[in-house]
Write a structure and sequence with these properties.
Layout (H helix, E strand, L loop, with lengths): L9 H5 L3 H10 L2 H4 L10 E2 L6 E2 L7 E4 L1 H8 L7 H6 L23 E4 L2 E2 L19 E7 L14 E6 L6 E12 L7 E11 L3 E12 L21 E14 L5 E14 L3 E4 L16 E4 L9 E16 L2 E15 L25 E16 L8 E18 L4 E22 L2 E16 L2 E2 L8 E2 L2 E16 L5 E13 L3 H5 L18 E14 L3 E20 L6 E20 L4 E14 L9 E2 L9 E8 L5 E10 L2 E8 L6 E8 L3 E10 L5 E7 L26 E9 L1
Parallel strand pairs: 4-7
Antiparallel strand pairs: 1-2, 3-6, 4-5, 6-7, 8-9, 8-36, 9-10, 10-11, 11-12, 12-15, 13-14, 15-16, 16-17, 17-18, 18-19, 19-20, 20-23, 21-22, 23-24, 24-25, 25-26, 26-27, 27-28, 28-29, 28-30, 30-31, 31-34, 32-33, 34-35, 35-36
């Protein structure tokens, strides 16, 4: 069950120090750590050494436990697959290095690793879902609505992956080996992971190194799946190193210093090239086939990759003028290279030469971030019982650019974004009611260098410039603990972001009315407002939660496909998204437990300026209705097995809109089909010989096309992965 938490506490959750994370884990009982994210009544959110039970905080956050992450890892190493299974409003996993088409409640979420942004909101490359080895992750916090906590990028919600912390006193080393196969040629993959944890009286350490080698992927019909043009996990190698250490010192150990380092690299092996399939056409393609792969390489091309490196230092003082002081500093360097393409927009001339004379080029995005966060929390402020105040300021500098690497051409010019954002947050416990409210001030500046567009965009010279963004973002809410079992909440929150500004920058051409950065309307900020109400019930053997929400933006963003180029077009227009979520967990007996969740999302935008919210938003923005369920059998202390299913439903949009002024007709025709994917995992504890797990992804070898890939687009006709069988061995010593 998605347990209510407040967006108001997000600024503390995401800026939390390692000390707070360690304390939080210690306060979760051994029993609760084995339960899924829906069993949250025993979890205490400590923030920064200020414990607060989550049933005292209104809002909407889903917590994904380590047990759920481990269960998913027994099936697949895909970093976002666990979100599809456990978060109602999260769309299906792309099963690729790219997370194109993956949204949270119909919007692109900001992904964080220990509070540090992955990728850049300045140039959303849909690669920020693959940034570390999932064996490092202890739990995931998902803010299911806009959040001011992170400033830029928080308009679509926040997904924060938190690294593991030592919980067992002394030294503990864990060796994990995994072998997976689809029983096809070159379909095998294997993983070796080694981690070491140490927990002493005042010091602790966690380190992990992992290597993954993946072969090619096959669909349910036994055909090789085409290499994703935005980056595939198939045919790749991954290396990951993560180190984190902390030391508590001072009187009563109130002070803590912690440092962490992460270095993640995934690179394609370049053994395959994509062979484009064809969609149904009664003449040209009476028998449609999805994209496939064949052995070979493109002369002069480079391997695709994701390189993510970050370093963070955290300091906290738990008794600083009767409150808690936190200081977090971080640096992150990220680079993403995509597969070679020979589309018209990659050519050196316009019009593009004939197909057999075209060149291949590869897009590459680079970004760098530096940040400093200062926060102070005081309980019983002004001698008022139950009143807690949190104040702080976030300083961020984010730079990003995109180029065509093989010909060294600018595609999106260098951009620099700086932000100074102070915030104030308060919560007040008044008997069975908790009220919260806060404000964040965004005082930001964007600078874009002058540049020349590509030949496809008419080689237009664009004058660089700067834009200033000043916004006051507010949030408030309340939760009423009606009885020991029932509670209800209501919340309002605002989020701030930029709408993938790299797309409008690179699409300026000779027909554009503006060739100056200062006057491009698409660079205006994306402000999202979210209203939500919900109810929760917790009994001895079951938990149920339900909520409805409405998310609006007066100048929002949505994606569509340009019929001339088959590439994405960014549309800035008002948007309105409404949704309903239901989640539950059931304990039928000591041996049988189950979960069930459901999500329904609908949204509308404009056909053209002034048309009103008449156009239904499609699958590129909103995921289809979804049901996810699981059943776990634990007959004894050594064995357990879980059967799970994720079912997506059909979407059928057939609309026609006639403009009254001139009779112009606009159509909105989009049809996608749903499917059910079953998974099975089983674990057996062999005592001193470790644990062994068998996982079967896509148990019935279902043949299907990924939902967002069912729409026409540039070489995007990909089938989903067929049955994958994995055997994992884990031993601790």
């Amino acid at each position: 069950m998605s347990k209510p938490l407040t967006v108001a506490i997000a600024s503390v959750l995401l800026a939390t120090t390692g000390a707070a994370q360690a304390q939080q884990v210690e306060q979760e009982s051994d029993e609760s750590s084995e339960l899924d994210a829906t069993t949250l009544d025993q979890v205490v959110v400590t923030g920064v050494r200020t414990p607060k039970a989550i049933d005292r905080i209104p809002g909407a956050i889903t917590l994904v436990s380590q047990a759920e992450i481990q269960n998913t890892l027994e099936l697949t190493e895909d970093a976002t697959a666990v979100l599809t299974r456990t978060v109602p409003g999260y769309s299906e996993s792309s099963q690729a290095m790219s997370n194109s088409g993956e949204t949270l409640r119909g919007r692109v979420a900001l992904r964080l690793f220990d509070g540090i942004p992955q990728g850049s909101p300045l140039r959303e490359g849909s690669r920020n879902g693959t940034f570390t080895d999932m064996g490092v992750i202890g739990r995931i916090e998902v803010i299911n609505g806009p959040s001011a906590a992170e400033g830029i990028g928080g308009a679509g919600g926040v997904i924060n992956y938190l690294s593991k912390v030592p919980t067992t006193p002394g030294h503990e080393t864990t060796l994990t080996t995994r072998y997976s196969t689809q029983f096809g040629d070159d379909s095998s993959q294997y993983k070796v992971g080694l981690s070491h944890a140490y927990k002493g009286e005042n010091a602790d350490f966690f380190g992990s190194a992992a290597y993954i080698d993946r072969g090619i992927s096959y669909d349910g019909d036994g055909r090789r799946i085409g290499m994703n043009t935005s980056g595939s996990l198939a045919d790749s190698r991954t290396k990951n190193l993560f180190l984190k250490g902390g030391y508590n010192f001072g009187e009563y150990g109130y002070q803590r210093i912690q440092a962490s380092y992460s270095n993640f690299r995934i690179r394609g092996k370049a053994n395959y090239i994509q062979v484009e399939g064809c969609r149904y056409d009664p003449v040209d393609c009476p028998k449609p086939t999805t994209n496939t792969s064949e052995r070979g390489s493109i002369a002069g091309s480079l391997a695709e990759f994701n390189d993510f490196e970050q370093f963070a230092v955290n300091y906290s003082h738990g008794n600083f003028f009767d409150g808690t002081l936190t200081v977090d500093a971080y640096w992150a360097d990220q680079a993403m290279r995509y597969l070679p393409e020979n589309g018209a927009d990659r050519q050196l001339t316009k019009p593009a030469p004939p197909e057999d004379q075209r060149i291949y080029d590869q897009s590459e995005i680079t970004s760098e971030k530096k940040g400093l966060r200062l926060g102070y929390t005081r309980g019983d402020a002004f001698n008022v019982a139950g009143l807690e105040l949190r104040v702080g300021v976030d300083l961020v500098k984010d730079t990003a650019a995109q180029r065509l690497a093989l010909t060294d051409r600018i595609w999106v010019p260098p951009m620099e974004y700086t932000s100074v954002a102070p915030y104030l947050q308060a919560s007040w416990d008044i008997g069975p009611v908790t009220l919260s409210a806060g404000v964040r001030r965004e005082d930001d500046e964007l600078h874009v260098d002058s540049y020349t567009t590509t030949a496809y965009r008419d080689s237009v010279a664009v004058d660089g410039g700067g834009l200033e963004y000043t916004e006051n973002l507010i949030n408030f809410g309340g939760i009423w603990r009606i009885t020991d079992q029932w509670s209800a909440f209501a919340s309002y929150s605002e989020g701030f972001g930029l709408a993938n500004i790299g797309i409008p920058l690179r699409n300026i051409n000779a027909s554009s009315s503006c060739r100056d950065v200062d006057c491009i309307a698409d660079l205006d900020p994306l402000i999202t407002e979210n209203k939500e109400i919900g109810v929760n019930w917790r009994g001895e053997r079951a938990q149920i939660g339900a909520s409805v929400y409405r998310s609006t933006s007066e100048f929002g963003s949505s994606l569509s496909v340009d019929p001339a180029t088959d590439d994405f077009i960014l549309t800035r227009a008002p948007t309105e998204i409404e949704g309903f979520e239901f989640s539950s967990a059931w304990t039928f007996s000591e041996a049988w437990k189950g979960t069930l969740l459901y999500s329904r999302i609908r949204g509308k935008t404009e056909y053209y300026p002034g048309s009103g919210l008449e156009k239904e938003m499609g699958i590129l923005d909103l995921s289809p209705d979804k049901v996810s369920a699981s059943l776990t059998w634990t007959p004894n202390d050594r064995f357990n097995a879980t059967l799970g299913v994720v079912k997506t439903f059909d979407r059928d949009l057939r609309e026609t809109h006639v403009r009254a002024s001139d009779g112009a007709t606009f159509t909105n025709d989009e049809n996608t089909y749903g499917y059910a994917l079953w998974d099975l995992s089983a674990n057996y504890d062999m005592g001193r010989y470790g644990e062994i797990a068998l996982g079967v992804e896509n148990l019935f070898d279902k043949q299907y096309v990924l939902t967002w890939s069912q729409l026409p687009g540039w070489q995007n006709y990909w089938a989903g992965r067929g049955r994958m069988v994995s055997l994992t061995h884990t031993i601790k010593f």
